[in-house]
Description:
The complex is a heterodimer of chains A (252) and B (197). Chain A has helices spanning 9-15, 19-25, 37-43, 48-59, 74-106, 111-152, 157-165, 168-174, 179-192, 200-244. Chain A has 252 residues and is mainly α. In chain A, helix 6 runs antiparallel to helix 9 and helix 6 (111-152) packs parallel to helix 10. Chain A is flat and about 70 Å long. The termini of chain A are far apart. With 197 residues, chain B is of the alpha/beta class. Chain B has 2 domains: 4-127, Response regulator (Rossmann fold); 134-196, Arc Repressor Mutant, subunit A, CATH 1.10.10.10. In chain B, strand 1 (4-9), helix 1 (13-23) and strand 2 (29-35) form a beta-alpha-beta unit. Chain B starts with a strand and ends in a 9-residue tail after the last helix. In chain B, 22% of the residues are buried. The A-B interface holds A 112-113, 116-117, 120, 123, 180-181, 183-185, 187-188, 191-194 and B 174-178, 180-181, 184-185, 187-189, 194.
Amino acid sequence: xxxxxxxxxxxxxxxxxxxxxxxxxxxxxxxxxxxxxxxxxxxxxxxxxxxxxxxxxxxxxxxxxxxxxxxxxxxxxxxxxxxxxxxxxxxxxxxxxxxxxxxxxxxxxxxxxxxxxxxxxxxxxxxxxxxxxxxxxxxxxxxxxxxxxxxxxxxxxxxxxxxxxxxxxxxxxxxxxxxxxxxxxxxxxxxxxxxxxxxxxxxxxxxxxxxxxxxxxxxxxxxxxxxxxxxxxxxxxxxxxxxxxxxxxxxx
Amino acid sequence: xxxxxxxxxxxxxxxxxxxxxxxxxxxxxxxxxxxxxxxxxxxxxxxxxxxxxxxxxxxxxxxxxxxxxxxxxxxxxxxxxxxxxxxxxxxxxxxxxxxxxxxxxxxxxxxxxxxxxxxxxxxxxxxxxxxxxxxxxxxxxxxxxxxxxxxxxxxxxxxxxxxxxxxxxxxxxxxxxxxxxxxxxxxxxxxxxxxxx
Lengths: 252, 197
């Protein structure tokens, strides 16, 4: 089902509780009574249409096939992507780490085995952090600069050189598959770690891993299906515009 | 082979979606692509090599059908004709697989199940050995200890290609894709001792 601005915000969560974390990412707090999506968004100064695109695309994998998100600036997309990074690093990853530690403390026979999982998750966390930092420090600033150049029709020599050397298509090629480790961890816990007396934390870890995996996939989809194609077009247009009259490119 | 794959060639979005939902209700069946126009039909079939292609008369007519069979030969795909018994009489030959679009849901599912049954049978025999062979365990042991493919090959007196193919099989069987994941599996299953790490 597709969510619209006139629906009650509460109904969104009733339909898909996974949207909870996304709604808080926009800074929207629970307790909105029977207000509509639009009313709540206005109250929190969130762009209603952008909000709807995000919640719809996270509720329906095929949603981007008739993309509306193309109408939103790279600026707002990057803003959202940055918030999801914060959610990973500050919230869900520490939560998972804490749950695996609990699992470790609550099992008697297999402490050594669970310790391995804890280390494995640490490795994942490092990989994720490197991935996040690279996007925050290199990719996002680059795409924001490209958007600015595209809008102002002005490009610095530096950016022009950078664009020739590093196109967003390189980003797509190197966009590393950090989901693999998550998948492995899920399988190790579901299939290969022998039964533990404690199922409570084991289940909780899994539920969180599934949540993180889905969120990471949604996040990559926005980057690959929306942000990158948009930047690719801008790059092309900048390249043809400034290659023709190269003198103007030294404006800045 | 773990799954039976389908391509659906049909111009109608609604028909395609309906077929996808119906097919994916049956375990181990997967639609790998929906094709909505004839332009890249043969290229897609030969690239993706699905087990079955479901095609209707309208779509079939729009193709260059001379040598239809030889054009898809490379894919080894089998054709299932989606027919409307009220009008597509001349589309059907006795020997073809077919699904009648007017049938009830349970009948359509049964027709599809009958068609894919031979493939699923052979698959059963292959998948009984999801445990690792002794040789695969040898390879896994060295991978878990951090050896490169070349080093594993030297240790076991096999070629590097054999190592790579063992690794592929290990990953497929266990559904574990990273070296550190494989290492943990090896410890949990006592293929290596945790102290040797």
